[in-house]
Protein 1
Amino acid sequence: MKHFYLLCLTLCFTFLSFSQFNPGAPWMSQFSQQDIKSNKIKFQDITDAFNSYWQTRDPMAKGSGYKPFKRWENYWKSYVNQDGYLPSKAFLWQTLQDKNQMSSARSTKAVSNWQLMGPFSHTNTGSWSSGQGRVNVLVVDPNNPNTSKDLESNMFYFYPNPTGGDITVKLPKPSDFNVFISDVTGKVIIRAADFSSTDQLVVPMKGLAAGLYFLSIEFLDGQKVTKKLIKK
């Protein structure tokens, strides 16, 4: 039933959009009715005929058809195909069928392994809900020895990227780590830090040619995280 209502709504919206277009308008007189019905007139040719017609007329005249056409033009200009024609009714119908088929084939089964951590109840204050079980931000607590090293290592960042010179590597807290810059073949170009305990490190890049590189951080326990780096 839901898909039926969606189909009706889509067809109604398309009909209303097309209804702004009047094939019997005076600026359409240069085209044959057969070409109009069979969609053999390019969108640009229609708008050119319209603009030419209104060069010597008042577009603000009541009931002139100027505004409905401009609404039609503004809506359909984004749907013109690569050959310059508007999509046919058959094409629109097939597109809707393909969309419905993709929607029905899409799996709605959850694939995550999230576990409820609470709170499992809360009190609304006023007319708004404070939310329940919503995660907006993840932050590593530098004072918590139980902080996951996996989470910590993936939270490192560096800037600027792309870079024209040096880059700065930042970690959420001082750690023993090493930094490698390698090219697309995997060859290590730069090695820095040597497991020094810090939360920030500047790596020189000025001598490298422009292109794609990979920045890797290796921690003392053997964990390694790699991210893309672009040299301008």
Protein 2
Amino acid sequence: MEGERTLAGVLRDLPDGQAVALGDMLAATGTRTHGAALLLLSLPEALPLPLPSASAILGIPLVIVSAHLALFGEAGALPRRLRARILPSWLVGALRGRIADIIGRAEGLSRRRWLPLARSERLLGLVCLYLSALLLAPLPLFNVPPALCLVLIAWGMVQRDGRAVAAGLAGTVVLTAALAGLVEWVRVRLEL
């Protein structure tokens, strides 16, 4: 990532108290556009921030970015309509403040490793599409687990850290098993 700015630096440079187009913000991340978009759109869901209606605002763009990544990999530019999407000032403020601080600390812990896994962009796009769809499901108190898995996978893509990607994939397997168990439990209870 030589010559590319850190993600925390990009976020800290966002304008204070103003809405920003997603494409303008992501242009500064260089070749890591899809991973950065997934990370920034899923972090508000994963963190205990008081952001009203975040899943309604962020869910559809997450699905679009994930599907685009699955189809085109990191080489494809995000769709024009998505790049033009305006992030509200409250979200920009959260990204600029608390989230930039968290990312800055995490950047010090992350490093390039397990590169083949971190660069499996199309496969990771499919997994992120699945997790994004789960975020849209109207299940109370259920947004955090899939959002955390999305954050780990996206973080690994941005930082080229395969260990973070592996943690996100492992979390996705556990989450899927838990969902399958819950569905089976409900099915058995409804048969009684």
Protein 3
Amino acid sequence: MAPPRPSSARRHRRHAAFPVALVTTGRRLLIAGGGPETADRLSAALRFDWASITLVTLAVRAPLRRIASRDARVRLVERPVREADVRAADVVIEGCGDPGVVERLSAWCRRHRRLLNAMDSPPHCDFHGVSFFARGPLLVSVASGGHAPALSAVLRRRLEAAVGPGWQTAACLMAAARGRLPSGPVRRSRMKALAADADLMAAIARNDRRAIRALLAGPRSPFATRKRRPAPAGEKTR
């Protein structure tokens, strides 16, 4: 006897997709199909450190050729997608919208243990696309698990308008400086304390690079050198 299905309310208390940031460095991306959203997906892919990006489609339209010409990592292949294309990739994005192609890609991805994102077909997806923007090393993304992508895009645009360039300035300076501290709980706690500093927030709002740098070097900074307190008179030091 099959177990009872959870109620709708219970199902919606749990998200099916866990938000993670996939490391693209050294990995191969396959985009299958040249549908209306493929140009946007290819442009987004170029912003990440994929080892290679292969676009397989029956006909490569001029906009796709222009985008691909900007980056030597992109290879254009004009033919139907094959199982060998999936086997040669690490991550697969479907961009044609053909249900038959989606079914074949899904079967091939399961067989070869490849991650698949299928356009407008959440049941076939191993991961979902997100609406995102970048401020230097900061990536801010909004996801709906494929259920409300248009709403995700609207929220992303609102957030993008609210997150000014000072966040990029601070992120770049902190990324360059954080290597001075050994990794571990001490660095994490000091970094969190600095990130919550009201003066830092004010400097970020002004995009004041000099003030941000001074806060990173100042006595409240986790990167500042801690001087040892002198021992009381008569007390031996080790």
Protein 4
Amino acid sequence: MKLKTFETEVTRLADSGVRLTVANVAARLRLSSAKTEAWLDELAKAGKLDLEIDEDHGVIVYTVRGLVPRRMPRADVHPGTELRIAQMEADLERAPQNPRALSPLGPPRRQKSVIVAFLAAAFLPGIGLFYAAPLTSALLASIACILLMKLAVIPFVGWAIGGGVALASGVAGALYASAFNRTGQRTEIVGRLTGRKQLPGR
């Protein structure tokens, strides 16, 4: 950074309400304190900055001659606090502008009830999977369950087939709801069970 650029940045900081102390300017412009102080003194000698001593905090405060800032600087902040605020603001300015990154918790994630998923899928085999499963998987499972339930009319073994299909559908529904709660979206569980990586469902 050259002195002319430094002068422009200092004027911008002053206009935004930043108290022009060595610590504040150095933190925001990512310069060493020695270089910052030398350039501030040079601008003061050139008549572009005025300076005064803050006796309460024991620091020199510079002001841009002739500038009426849009925001007035806060004179009641301790220099150590000012430095931390300056460093935080500088980090924010250089951070990627990702709205979710500004919130450590992020938006609340939707949840699916595992119990409701189990009961819906058990009492409505296949169809109940639409509650939490990927739509394609739920559709295929519904077709498969309808075909298998046709075998429930077979004497002696029909009840076992029907019960097994209902139980398997209920367990699948619970697993799909659990996967949804972990990922926040409809997620395929076949890959997790078989060890293969699957893309999230729609």
